Amino acid sequence: MLIRLLIALFLCSAFSTYAKKVDITVETDIYFYAKEIIGKKPVLEITDYSGVNAQRDVVEFILIQQALILGGSDIQFNFIYGNYDARNLKLLNEGLLLLSFDSLWLSATEKYKENLYITEPLIKKGEYFAGIFTSEVNLKKYRNPPLTLNDMTIVSSKDWHVDWLTLQSLKPKELVHESDWIVMAKMVSRGWVDGMLAPFKKQEHFSYVGPDYKIVAIPNVKVALDDSRHFVVSKKHPLGKETFEALQKGLMILRERGLIEKAYRQAGFINDDVKGWRTITSDKVQFN
Q1: Alpha-carbon distance 26 to 213, whole Å?
Q2: Helices (H), the chain
Q3: pTM (two decimals)
């Protein structure tokens, strides 16, 4: 399956200089959540990023397309949805993927930086805070005591560079690897593990709800993920340089219009409701 995908992306790269139509991989749930917000409108007309399923990576899917159009890019995208979190950085490094529609941690891109264009940060270092999410049943257990992770089993992914290293440094009772976000949410919802990290959003209790799962944020505590996030473009792709230049220009326009901050606020990622919550952090974590 992966070999077929690589061949398809390579063929797309070979002809994209002329066709300006490029395959882009995107997580399945993120694609459909973003389509709920976009609806039938041209993506550039979207100025309201709110919605039941609005979250950080959903609004980034919209912002990156808006930035490219504002920057003068005329590329058309063919979206291939699936579970690509673990593969995208390698595909970008090899020139088999033009750009990532989900921002990436700066430290995760370090070993590939010779082959990648990296935009100015969408989320600056010190701005990223995640909630600790648990099941509704377990919520009462964690509401009152001063919470640490030492007595909790936590699920995350080794492919999420900053999340994994941060959690390791905080020494949970057990740290379980799972590559699929929805599977993680189901594990937490069913009580198989105690919790997981996730960005805040606008729903009641900042909840994530889907088929067979519901997870809610433990109140009054958050975890600092101390790195910046950026859009990344492959230098090896034939359209890499012009795409990066258009993206940088368009992101500047969006920031000047206040739409990047607005999108993150409407998604609940930048959230004044958790501003005073106690922050769990570790001085020992090294991302590089």
Answers
A1: 22
A2: 2-19, 28-38, 56-70, 88-93, 136-143, 161-170, 181-189, 240-256, 259-267
A3: 0.86
